[in-house]
Amino acid sequence: MKFSRRDIMLGVGALLGAPAFVRRAEASPFVEASFPQRGQIVSGMQATVTRIATSEPLVALTFDDGPHPSLTPQLLDILRAYEVSATFYVIGNRVAQLPQLAARIAAEGHEIGNHTWSHPSLFGHSDAALLDQVDRTSHAVINATGRMPVTLRPPYGNMHPRQRLMLHQARGIPTVLWSVDPEDWRRPGSTVVTNRILSMSHPGDVVLAHDIHGPTIRAMPGTIEGLRARGFRFVTVSELIGWPRWDRRRLRTVASAS
Ligand SMILES: [Zn+2]
Q1: CA of 258 to the centre of ligand 1 (A)
Q2: Phi and psi of 114, rounded to 5°?
Q3: What domain range includes position 144?
Q4: What is the pTM of this model?
Q5: What CATH number is associated with residue 175?
Q6: pLDDT in tens, 152-172
Q7: Number of domains into which the chain is organized
Q8: Which of 68, 168, 210, 213 is catalytic?
């Protein structure tokens, strides 16, 4: 099943039978959360999620910048062995090159989020250019998996609050940042990555990592075992927020919602 850009604009969730709808934002600069959620979203505004305020021992592992042709499969093997679900913030042009790998991510129970088409800093982007980065990636993910990413992580975390509100209003997509950063991209070594994640993680946290670095992949068995030993359970971002499934939330534009 192929989806066109227009399908995305009109909300593929409708095709998937999703019951929820995204209310059009009013004049207030603070967008009401228009989706069910587990606990209070901890952020400066509702269009942004950094972590969830919950007493449940839940943590969401997120992996950015893939899919990577050799490292992502290694990570998937590890996650499968430990029966852990994670969230992958994929780069659209890599999904277009590796659609079968994206399909494997989804088929094995993980969530796929949007990490833009070409990984730019979005600070200087016009609204149209930003939405093009998002829509092209959504299109690639849908064509690979049949499912729509329901959250965005901006590269480098670079997105003005006004841009996050614009995206939420235009596409119903909240921006997901993170609350635990082991700085694995500096390649400090697997043991350091594991120790940082274990020492920093609390219930409701979103952990930032990258599945394009070998030491990060090798850090995962110890990280998973350590977090489990501390009582944590692993959930995807949608599960952490309280959405039953990542692909069942209807996405609409302001134009189609009005
Ligand atoms: Zn990135």
Answers
A1: 33
A2: -95, 125
A3: 5-257
A4: 0.84
A5: 3.20.20.370
A6: 999 999 999 899 989 988 888
A7: 1
A8: 210
